[in-house]
Structure to design on (366 residues):
């Protein structure tokens, strides 16, 4: 199939590389000549001289323009592309569906994946493996066009899920956009504070690092996302405000029962989230290993565990300083396997602390 990629940054170039594995013929165009040149250098697309040139005679157009320009670009592609099916990969959907103006050829899309890098030079054909890929057909959408995009998405390794565009924006407000808002709030509040002359950021613990990992994400992307999905984000933040007031009231009243139930509910919800990634999240054990800052340490640990056939479910490194090293967090399934891993690592001189990923749920106090 001949496919045009309009917008050849990380996401567009990744779509192109993944489509190449199907044997598709890819042509690309970008309003930014440097972005297009990077995609060509990456081997993702052949360059077109204009938008009209890119979409001429193709069967499918994938629009990967920035959010601020996405609705106008989709409208321009629909006007220029003849009979081609058109889809997009934007992270908000209501505005772009409106811009398509009921065209039966348009099927909105949003792959739930990404990277902390950007640019075609960092594109990957495997970016979509195992990802959810939302599709937002409307009443006027041609079913054959929907089937074409559905099949294309499946072939790239993703799981297509149909959803209403407005519902999509409310959903991602809760699962993606509001977490970014809250991470920025916590980072800025902590960074602007002093406690009896002490700077909190200088004494940050794992909780702060974990919660603020996504703080300060690329403003060129996130300002546009926040503004485009502002209504849904505001609605979700209003609900956050109500829930925070409940916690404030419980603290003021010394209501330990409420707080215990509240934490237990959060534990259950986190378990439900982890069940999508792990067959039995309740059996996951967390090993915290203090490691020095020197080459080969991580490779040595993973090789040692692998040699004993101890499977690492996940791992993460928090670096403190060249002098203090860091903390390597390793997830292992089962208490027995975790103890085997700890014994092995302690025999090599490492300090290891084991804890369950999910704490035991508290009993309901009525």
């Amino acid at each position: 199939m001949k496919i045009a990629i309009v917008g050849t940054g990380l996401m567009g170039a990744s779509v192109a590389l993944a489509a190449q594995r199907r044997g598709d013929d890819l042509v690309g165009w970008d309003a930014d000549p440097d972005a297009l040149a990077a995609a060509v250098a990456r081997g993702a697309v052949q360059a077109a001289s204009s938008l009209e040139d890119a979409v001429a005679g193709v069967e499918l157009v994938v629009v990967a323009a920035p959010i601020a320009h996405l609705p106008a670009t989709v409208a321009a592609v629909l006007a220029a592309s003849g009979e081609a099916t058109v889809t997009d990969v934007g992270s908000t959907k209501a505005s772009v569906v409106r811009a398509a103006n009921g065209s039966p050829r348009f099927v909105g899309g949003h792959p739930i994946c990404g990277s902390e890098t950007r640019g075609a030079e960092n594109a990957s054909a495997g970016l979509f493996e195992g990802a959810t890929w939302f599709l937002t057909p409307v009443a006027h959408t041609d079913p054959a066009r929907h089937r074409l995009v559905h099949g294309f998405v499946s072939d790239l390794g993703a799981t297509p899920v149909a959803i209403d565009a407005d519902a999509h924006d409310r959903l991602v407000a809760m699962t993606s956009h509001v977490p970014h808002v809250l991470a920025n709030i916590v980072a800025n509040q902590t960074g602007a504070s002093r406690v009896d002359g002490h700077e909190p950021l200088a004494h940050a613990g794992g909780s702060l690092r974990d919660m603020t990992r996504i703080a300060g994400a690329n403003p060129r992307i996130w300002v546009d996302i926040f503004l485009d999905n502002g209504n849904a984000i505001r609605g979700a933040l209003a609900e956050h405000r109500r829930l925070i007031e409940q916690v404030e009231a419980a603290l003021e009243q010394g209501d330990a029962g409420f707080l215990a139930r509240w934490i237990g509910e959060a534990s259950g919800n986190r378990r439900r989230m982890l069940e999508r990634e792990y067959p039995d999240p309740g059996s996951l054990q967390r090993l915290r290993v203090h490691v020095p800052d020197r080459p080969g340490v991580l490779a040595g640990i993973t090789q040692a565990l692998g040699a004993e056939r101890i499977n690492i479910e996940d791992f993460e490194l928090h670096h403190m300083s060249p002098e203090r090293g860091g903390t390597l967090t390793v997830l292992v399934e089962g208490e027995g396997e975790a103890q085997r891993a700890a014994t092995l690592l302690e025999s090599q001189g490492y300090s290891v602390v084991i804890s369950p990923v999910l704490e035991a749920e508290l009993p309901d106090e009525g």
